[in-house]
Design goal:
The chain is an alpha/beta fold. It has two domains: 65 residues, CBS-domain; 102 residues, CBS-domain. The protein is 40% helix and 21% strand. It has ten helices and eight strands. The strands form three sheets. The chain has a three-stranded mixed sheet. Strand 1, helix 2 and strand 2 form a beta-alpha-beta unit. The longest helix is centred in the N-terminal third of the chain and has 11 residues. The radius of gyration is 19 Å and the shape is flat. The termini are far apart.
């Protein structure tokens, strides 16, 4: 817990990336897609001829391009079928380790392969930033916080679609729900997931 307290008091410079991936304002959408796929990152900084920051383009921006459009590609063709999941009774510490180990931002919550909810890195950060909980962290009571069950912070409102759904429909769900993952289900059974990166790979 002492290490955790020391870590959150470090400056941003300790964890920031110095080798920033950029594109110029004159770059094409195709250039952006290629760069984001090659670099395996979630966003690209856009700069002008003076190298001044003009904006950022993210995976979601590219996904929104096909939202609601007919692509002729089904969710089944691109979804990840071997989905790593967690359970509602799993301690937050264990769920977080699964996400970190696999570089996941989201983790479906299941019970005997039935979809119950989802937990995301943002939910965990919001939970940790809660006033009362943050005081516990400051008091070195981190272990108590990390024992919290996934069920206490997960969302049961999970965006879902059928395996026959077109990628344009999946992208529309992502855009309207402001999410980066859609779970593919059949009778509440989890068949797979489609992420923003899956869509980008398909259109890139």
């Amino acid at each position: 817990s002492g290490n955790f307290l020391a870590a959150i008091n470090e400056s941003v410079s300790e964890i920031m990336v110095n080798d920033v991936v950029t594109l110029t304002t004159g770059a094409s959408i195709e250039d952006g897609l290629k760069k984001i796929l090659e670099s395996r990152i979630g966003g690209i900084i856009i700069v002008d001829e003076d190298n001044s920051i003009r904006g950022i383009v993210t995976e979601r921006d590219f996904v929104n391009i096909v939202a609601g459009k007919k692509t002729g590609i089904s969710a089944y063709e691109v979804m990840t079928m071997k989905v790593i999941t967690t359970t509602s009774g799993t301690p937050l510490e264990d769920a977080s380790k699964i996400m970190l180990r696999n570089s996941f931002r989201r983790l479906p919550v299941t019970s005997q392969n039935f979809l119950e909810g989802i937990i995301t890195s943002r939910m965990i950060l919001n939970f940790m930033g809660n006033g009362g909980l943050f005081k516990k962290i400051i008091k070195n009571e981190v272990s108590e916080v990390l024992k919290t069950r996934v069920s206490e912070i997960m969302s049961k409102d999970v965006p879902t679609a059928s395996k026959e759904a077109d990628l344009g429909e999946i992208a529309y769900i992502m855009e309207s729900k402001k999410t980066g993952t859609v779970c593919i289900t059949e009778d509440s059974t989890l068949l797979g997931i489609v992420t923003e990166r899956d869509i980008i790979k398909s259109i890139g």
